[in-house]
Write a structure and sequence with these properties.
The protein is mostly helical. About 70% of the residues lie in helices and about 0% in strands. It folds into 2 domains: about 1-55, Arc Repressor Mutant, subunit A, CATH 1.10.10; about 75-169, no CATH class. α1 packs across α2 and α5 (about 80-90) crosses α9. The termini are far apart.
Length: about 170
């Protein structure tokens, strides 16, 4: 698990670990990167890494969580599908590095983990269950769109989702 930082300095350092990892993943597969190589790339001692994260997987989880939070909290996915697909088109580089390392599934896994936490706490309604199926389908469509080169526009992807779920404009 990654730590939730509170000071500006620690938040900035944590973000620097994330951006450095993403930059390294553009050149190398995730599984070829080590905590030592990440710390060396940043010019910090290895022990500094462990103030913020327990593992490299935690850095990746934080990156994915930030992207998902931004995508889902800042957009009403049911009504702003164009905005949703536009957001991910802008974040194509994240999708690229996840695909390169065979980790695209993390986007869907992290969503299921969040839903499971709600279920475990007993805070899950039938409406939320339906919505989780909807979100899972859209995320699968997102990954398929990315893997096929994002040839369709966000508007076309929005129309595909609306057609799939029989949503009227």
């Amino acid at each position: 698990m990654y730590k939730i930082c509170k000071t500006e300095k620690s938040i900035a350092r944590q973000k620097l670990f994330q951006t450095t990892l993403l930059a390294m993943m553009k050149k190398n597969k995730f599984h070829d990167i080590t905590v030592t190589s990440l710390a060396k790339e940043m010019g910090v001692p290895r022990k500094t890494f462990y103030r913020y994260y327990d593992s490299l997987e935690d850095v990746l989880d934080a990156i994915v969580d930030d992207a998902l939070t931004e995508a889902f909290l800042n957009l009403e996915v049911k009504t702003d599908l164009v905005g949703f697909f536009s957001y991910w088109k802008k974040r194509k580089s994240l999708l690229d590095v996840l695909q390169k390392s065979g980790l695209s599934h993390l986007l869907i896994n992290r969503i299921f983990e969040r839903f499971n936490e709600s279920i475990d706490k007993g805070n899950f309604t039938n409406e939320e269950l339906r919505y989780s199926g909807y979100i899972s389908a859209i995320m699968t469509m997102l990954l398929t769109w990315h893997h096929s080169g994002m040839k369709q526009s966000p508007e076309e992807m929005s129309q595909e989702v609306k057609h799939m779920f029989k949503i009227e404009d």
